[in-house]
Each structure stands twice: as C-alpha cells, then as structure tokens.
Amino acid sequence: MLKEFKKFIARGNVLDLAVGVIVGGAFSSIVTSLVNNIFTPIIGLILGGIDFSNLSITFKDTKIMYGAFIQSVIDFLIVAFCLFVVVKFVNRFTSKKEKKKSEEVKTKSNELVVLEEIRDLMKNDIRNK
Known about the structure:
Layout: H1 2-10, H2 12-46, E1 57-59, E2 62-64, H3 66-106, H4 110-128
Antiparallel strand pairs: 1-2
Helix pairs in contact: 2-3
C-alpha cells in the first residue's frame, strides 16, 4: 500500500496539481490586494463614496446585512474579471509561441530537402533491384 501511495504521489498530475494550488493561493492574495486596495476605492469614487457593506434592513430584532452580500458580489465580479484578463493574456502569449513553433517546423532547410531527396532516391534504388 505504501508503494502504491508513493507511485500515486510521484505522478506528474499530482505534482502539477500541488504546484497549481500553491501558486493559486499566492495569486489569490495578489488579486485580493488589487481588489481591496485599488479597484474598490476607485469604484467607491465613481459611485460617490457609497459603501455597500454597511447597508442593512432591521426586521424585529434581526439585522439583515444585504449590503455585505452586494459588496461580495462586486468583489467576485472584479476578481473574475482580473482572472479573465490574466488568462486572456497568457493564452495570447502561448498562442504566439505555438504559432512561431509551427512556422519553424514548416520551413525546411536546404540540407534537409537534399537529404530527403537522397533518401527517396535510395528507396527507389532498393525497390528497383
């Protein structure tokens, strides 16, 4: 059982997942800081300094904090947009890299063309004998 566990942990997928979780946690703190320290104050200025988190309704002895929910939704949308922009940037970068690789593969050097011709001639020579 211990050998199976070691084999499971040594798999590339598990290690990739672990790295992804750690990097995701670090990235999460960056995005949270971006939202809390930059975007939320800017949105507050645009909306005239309204702070949704303090909005509430009192019903009998219960205070319903619907403003905190609105603030959480706004924070989520900002975080989702930031992630969208980052993913779009990464996809654009990787697609350019892949396009460049495919272009490199398509262009053959003169030496390669000559070697392929020699190979084809040798194949024909062997078949004709």
